[in-house]
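Example 3.
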Amino acid sequence: MLTLAIFLPIAGALAIILLPKEEEHRAKVIAAAVSAVVLALVAFMFLDYDRDKAGYQFINSTTWLDSDFSTLRLKYAVGLDGLSLPLALLTAFLGLISVLISWRIELRPKEYFGWLLVLQTSLLGVFSALDFVLFFVFWEIELVPMYFLISVWGSGNRVYSAWKYVLYTFFGSALMLVGILTLGFTADTFDIRELARIGDIHDAIIPTWAIFTLIIAAFLIKLPIVPFHTWLPDAHTDAPTAVSVILAGVLLKMGGYGILRMSLSIMPDVARDASIWLAIIAAVSILYGALMTLIQQDLKRLIAYSSVSHMGYVLLGASAIGTVGLTGASMQMLTHGLITGMLFVLVGMVYDRAHTRNIADLSGLAPRMPFIAVMMVVAGLASLGLPALAGFVSELTVFLGTFEKHEVMTIAGVIGIVFAAGYILWTIQRVFWGAPDPRWESLADATAWWERGPLLAMTAAIVAIGVYPAVMMDLFESGVTPIAQRLG
Amino acid sequence: MMMGLGVFGIVAAIFHLFTHAFFKALLFLGAGSVNHATGTFDMRKMGGLAKYMPVTFWTVFVASMALVGVFPLAGFWSKDEILSDAWDDRPWVFVVALIGVFLTAVYVGRMLFLTFGGEYKGGEEPEHGEAGGHAQPHESPSLMLVPLVALAVMAGVAGFVNLDSGLETLIEGWLPKESEELVTHGGFQWWIALSSTAAGLAGLGVAWLVYGARAVQSDRVRHIAEPLPEILENKYYLDWLYEELFVRALVLGGAAWLLSLWDRYVIDGVVNGVGTAARWGADQARLVQAGQAQLYASAMLIGVLGAIAGILIIDPK
């Protein structure tokens, strides 16, 4: 069933490509239907997952590549555990939403929706791969749709941004590949479960810390951390709305997921030594990102920089190398995906109407578009960590988990929250309140079902997790506990 | 309240929170009622309202007297406990508190005389297209008056709950053992009660002189107190300090601005520089692939000689 969920989008993409030209308006319907089925499949697995047993479930495993020259085998092995299952659910959820909010795409719709579906396959694959090489394959596949989606359907300096994104990720991937190969050939397996069981490898041709650095470099670039973050504001700003949603909502989580799943659990000894450095990098990213967010003039760039800051909390939680911190880090990935995804949907709607994202030009939009304004306030409050909304739970858990280990860095992180309150409220105040501008007199609110539906669904998820976090947190905890045990 | 805590009058502090809730809530409600009638919060545009809105006036009057701490209203009892605790703990705090009582009485008196005394000054100017305005102020509807009266009753009698130390016993029961020893127990002393009442009455008297009888022009007071009024009107310049200095100058214009320059020119400069360097390097390297056999042959010769030299250097045998 998991394999079906992973490859169904690719099948859907093929079906879309085969549509005759005059039927191309059906592309979005097919994409929506496929995404809905995928979401249903993943949701079913989410409910069906045996929480008492924990560990990997829904495993599909078969030999993929068997070479006569070495004992090494590549496996196609996928499975979900408490850490990856919620992230897969997030992927499927945002996948459907990204299709819906693209309902008005007129430019080459067959290719657009086809690429969106390919992107879904690669993301689901990254979160469910149990073989390091398979993980790498899915990780790389994701670059192709992203490049085309940004460079064709983007805005502004889109070709530059697409190249920058691809080259940055590729740079990280190359380092990771060296790490993977060294690790795999020394341990004689690429199976993530096996690698985690073996633990740190000390007889490789390069020192263990070098392997650790090579692999985590790719994840840190993806997360991203300062100073490897500048691809993110460019890519976010120039990407079409739906792609920004997926980029912020899911793609960044590949980095966080990789850190937890690969770096911490396969090389726990190095991770323990590196913990303080990770915490320092995290604190720098949080504060640097928050300060940069404060002075952004472009709405999308603003949210992009806030992502840099918020993903710093993922790394901060990871640096605690304990169950609570890791749970917080994974919760932060999920809640940031929902909240920032929603913020990008909203900013996209404002941009579609006003055709500008410049904060200085926008003013007094709330009376013109009350629904969007209310949703913006909800998402904004969630983003700054208001209790009873999702963001608070994850940030608090990160702080609780990290404080004992890295006090100073945690305090620095909490200061980031103060800046977050500043930039979020100030932005909403400038854009939605203030004197009404005659230029925006004729703008309409979000009324279509494909606009309101996704926003209401995201709000429901944010409130649900905020009020009753256990629904996700128990699962994450069961997923990170084995990692924490290896670290402990 | 903070002073009550500072001198470890924990019971008195909580007691004051309790009584304060009634009369301060009443004062805000009264302000709302007055605003309902006049359309403004500017006291200089009011005046004479006691005549038009008697219920609001009397309830606000009760609350004001409770705030000043006039016997036997709620504020008197709780304030008296804090004062006597202050005297027991640190006498200079008691003196500061008395000055506070005096100032409270002055501003409360000013509020009462400006709003309810004298002649009505017309309220807010009616806006364009708005009928009527506020030429004739009127009492608020009972929806607003009932809460006012209810709160006025409590502002009057809430102070009696601690007459037999009932509240005190209750609060001390909740305190953890360690903090119980810290609690100051200043008992009721006649001279403290009398001095705070005197300070209050003196303040009210000053207010009456300036704003009621107009015996002293408020402009002259202002003139004498220079430059205090400017500082006060600018809220001690704290807003300026926070907004202009901390937020605009230091955070936005300083740290964040520098970081954005760093982000754009240094980090992205390096990133783009790597790209440019790669392209430049490729352009240079391309020249080698020119298809000239002589160039290839000479490069090959140099390469072979270099290889031989390398082997000889590393392994001369």
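The mean pLDDT of chain A is 92. The two ends of chain A are 34 Å apart (CA to CA).
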